[in-house]
Amino acid sequence: MTNSNEKSTAPFFDHAGLVHITEKEFDVVIDLKYAQTDNFTGQVIYLHDQCFLHPIAANALQKAVKVAKNLGYKIKVFDAFRPQSAQERLWQVCPNPDYVADPTIGSNHTRGVAIDLTLLDMTTGEELDMGTGFDTMDVRSHHFYLGLGQEIMQINRMRLLTVMLTAGFVHHPREWWHYQLPHATSFDLVNADI
Question: Is residue 22 part of a domain?
Fold first, then answer.
């Protein structure tokens, strides 16, 4: 058992039927923001740095990786499965249903069918400029916000949208980084925690 200040590297959630997403097996970069203080809460929310998805979402991610690669990009993952306890902590910091799902209803991240991500240029390794950082909770993060330049709106965000729609995901209108499976709320909440 790890103490509260240690991050475990042991695999989690095998009993919940989730797929462990690794950089090597999925050819992605994983930068789980809630396993660090570099997120809107300024707190470490996850005591692990491992990434999981529902099997159907994991298959769709594999498709997205191939589409992105064909366009010269690599996927960088910020968040995927989120335990209920973590959702409750996020809600305590920001009880705004426009950006954080009310944990009494349930988050699609807690269903394992939502993923937060961006694109990296495969040549330079740099993130594409999406106009805001991950988890910027204001109108500039809305997917089709018109106050951003052409490079961001008509090119970079549309590249990400194209990759993810082609792979079978749908977008979140208020968060350019958030994609999920269609009919996400038809999936059960995953009762697994850390």
Answer: yes
> Residue 177: what residue type?
W
The DSSP secondary-structure symbol of 189 reads: P
d(CA 154, CA 134): 19
pLDDT at 193: 66
How much is the average pLDDT of 118-125? 97
Active site residues: 175
Tell me 36's DSSP state.
Answer: S
CB atoms within 10 A of CB 177: 25
- Record the pTM: 0.89
Q: CATH number of the domain that 135 lies in?
A: 3.30.1380.10
Hey, how many other C-beta atoms are within 10 angstroms of the C-beta on 14? 11
The tokens of 29 are what?
Answer: 């970069």
Confidence of residue 6 (pLDDT cuts 50, 70, 90): very low
Domain count, the chain: 1
Residue 58, pLDDT score = 98
Dihedral-angle region of residue 112 (phi above 0 means left; psi in -120 to 50 means alpha; beta otherwise): left
Q: Which residues contact 65 (CB under 8 A, 6 or more apart)?
A: 26, 27, 28, 74, 75
Domain-embedded: residue 6: no
- Residue 33 is classified by DSSP as G
Between residues 66 and 1, which one has the greater pLDDT?
66
